[in-house]
Structure formats: C-alpha cells, structure tokens
Please model this.
Amino acid sequence: METTDQLILATGGYDHTIKLWQAHTGNCVRTMRFVETSQVNALDRSPDKTKLAATGYQCIRLYDLESNCTVPVINFEGVQKNVTRLGFQENGKWIFTASEDYRVRIWDMLSAAPHCTRMFDCQAPVNAACLHPNQVEIAMGSQNGGVYLWDVKSEAHKQLIPEVDAAVQDVAISPDGNWMAAVNNKGNCYIWSLVSSPNQQLSTIQPKLKIPAHKRYVLRCKFSPDSRLLVTTSGDGTAHIWKTDDFSLWQELVIENYWVWDAAFTSDLDDNVDDVASSNDDETVPYKQ
Model:
C-alpha cells in the first residue's frame, strides 16, 4: 500500500501482530496488536488508504493508518469461526468477508458500527473470495469443491463444481473482468471466461481450461494488474507464472524446502512480457463443465 510519500508493506502472522514496513528499506515502522488467541488470516487496505482491516479466528479488526495507535479502532460484532478472506468495495462503502462458518458476508461501512447487510451460504467452509471489477459480483471457493459467483444486488448466483473431492483453495478474477481462476488441493487450476451484459443479472461463465499447475497442493492464484499474467503458488515450493493469452507457463520461481503461501505483482510489469517465448512442461487441456 502507498502513503503520500512512501510505499508501505503490511504483514500479519502467527505472532498475533500486524507490522508496517518501509518497502524500500525493510525497516519496521509500526507494530500493531491483533488478538492474543488468533493468527492474522487476511489484510486489506481501505481505498482512501486511511484504514487497515484484518481478520482471524472469530474476529475482524479495523486499524487507523493515519494515527500512531497500535490497537484497533473498530471490532466487528457477530463474527464466528475462522474468517479467511476480506476485501473493500472500491468506494469503501462496504467490505466482504469469507468464513469457515460457510458464509460470505457484506458489511456496511457507512454506519458508525459496521453490520452485516447481506449473506451467502456456500454450504461448506469458505476458503476464498474475491470481488469482480464490476463491484457487484463476488467469486467464492469452498472446502467441498464448489466455486460460486454471487451478485450481491440481485442475489442471483451460479455454482460450479470443477472437480469432485477437491477443496478449492483460492479464486481470482482478472482486473479486466474477462477471466476467473480457481485452484485446488490436487494441484489443478481451472480457468473460465466471464462475459457481462447490461441485460444480465450475472456474468455468463464459460469453462476454458484445466491446467495441471503443480505437483502438490495449490495455495493461491492471482492475476497481474494488466491481466496478462496469472501466478499460482504451491506446497511444492514453486510459484508458476502463466501467460493469459494462451495460459502457457512463462516462468517458474523456486523456493526450496518451503511452501509458497502467497504472491503479489507490482504495478510496473515489464512491457516485454509478450515478447518472451513461453515454455510449458505441463500441458493445458480444454475443460468442459
């Protein structure tokens, strides 16, 4: 996240703290207390860059980034089980959270005390959720293998089960809104195309590819800001970067003897991505739902 004069990195972990770092020096500039009984599962910054939201076991906390306060300014009420994901709507009017209590919730952030205004039941623990660039649809992935797309205004939704007996670990939608990806604990990545229409309540979902992305458990998938690349990370100690023009493997990054839990793209990607020849040891195959 960026402040007015410097780039700041926020991290959270199993030590029950959230730390803010100067990205260019690696110096920790602030440590904020979380919850003594919980690890930090997810972080997101408000669009106006003044607040930081964090989730953990039975808790959602909101921190003020403009002050030197190290304790949360807001504690959300009515939170159950492990809250796995969260994200802000582009104007900060609401946030969404995903939880192991089977539900994705929409929280009103305009009221003095945030409260839940909408809820979707995935019928299984929810491992992942992300907001479509249209700011209306949310993609979700569940422990029972379900992938859902939910329109939070109309309540229309669609369920997909790309692979039986496989837990969906993460979902992602490309910033241009054209692609949706989901990864599971069997090492596979599924790709769908998304088509929106003013006359539709929900984007049309068309299956495109099944990619045998990794040899082990896949943990995360994420599109680059320009939608040209997709990264997948795994328990096999690698991160694979795929070119979205044909979803061929572009690069493999290796961290030996460690699980690669997450990855992020910078906003200044090399313009030569399109000029690099792709190498693909794992064949992509057409996928039909």
